[in-house]
Amino acid sequence: MNDAKEMKKNYKTIDLVYIALGVVLIAICSWISIPTTVPFTMQTFAVFFVLSILGGKRGSVAIIVYVLLGAVGVPVFAQFTSGIGILFGNTGGYIVGFIFMGLLYWLIVHFLGKKLWVEILAMVIGLAACYSFGTVWFMIVYAQANGAVNLAMVLAWCVIPFIIPDLIKLGLALILVRRLSPVLKLQ
């Protein structure tokens, strides 16, 4: 009986360690900026990777902790920024959208199983939800500060330049997870 309690306690401790490592990975990848015409970070790569390697539950918790840490002032967002002002800014909806990515991934994989095609589907649907939430958020916040902006313009600024890079990051994350999973044995 005592051994069972000890195993359960250790399992929770291990979960917390995995979640913390996921948060750190997302933060580090958010600081990696790839300069192009429209610069982008490796943040979405980390979100995809963390969800796939840790699973929906631990991955979603890692994403939520990451967003909360940034909200309270820990500089985990792109360019070492943080604060509630970043989340309530023009692009804050895309950061909050990561939570939807995690929850949708968790839900879809829970019901359909963790097969490669299911993971890809879950991540693509999650990414679409993130884009959708972030775009609506951007339009509302931008309109309050600068006046109305049309959807086509916001998509051209905030979504279209990121679709191909994000799909590449999705593929890289899944390839890396497939290579590391047998060694790490996290699942």
Structural class, judged by helices and strands? mainly alpha
Model regions low in confidence, pLDDT < 50 over at least 5 residues: none
Side by side, the strands of the main sheet go: 1-2
CATH class: Mainly Alpha
Number of strands: 2
Gyration radius from CA atoms, angstroms: 17 Å
What is the average of the pLDDT values?
A: 92
Largest sheet, if any?
2 strands, antiparallel
Strand content: under 5%
Name the shape in a single word. Answer: globular
Please give the CATH architecture.
Orthogonal Bundle
CATH topology label = Arp2/3 complex 21 kDa subunit ARPC3
Order of helices and strands: HEEHHHHHHH
Report the span from N to C terminus.
25 Å
Helix coverage percent? over 70%
Number of H- or I-type helical stretches: 8
Number of domains: 1
Describe the structure.
There is one protein chain. The protein is globular, with a radius of gyration of 17 Å. Strands 1-2 form a two-stranded antiparallel ribbon. It starts with a helix and ends with a helix. It has helices spanning 2-31, 43-54, 56-71, 84-87, 92-112, 116-146, 151-158, 160-184, and strands at 33-34, 40-41. Helix 2 runs parallel beside helix 8 (160-184), helix 6 crosses helix 7 (151-158) and helix 6 (116-146) runs antiparallel to helix 8. The mean pLDDT is 92. The chain is built from 8 helices and 2 strands; from the N terminus they run αββααααααα. The relative contact order is 0.12. The longest helix is centred in the last third of the chain and has 31 residues, at 116-146. 79% of the residues lie in helices and 2% in strands. It has one domain (2-184): Arp2/3 complex 21 kDa subunit ARPC3 (Orthogonal Bundle), CATH 1.10.1760.20. Strand 1 and strand 2 (40-41) form a beta hairpin. The protein has 187 residues and is mainly alpha-helical.
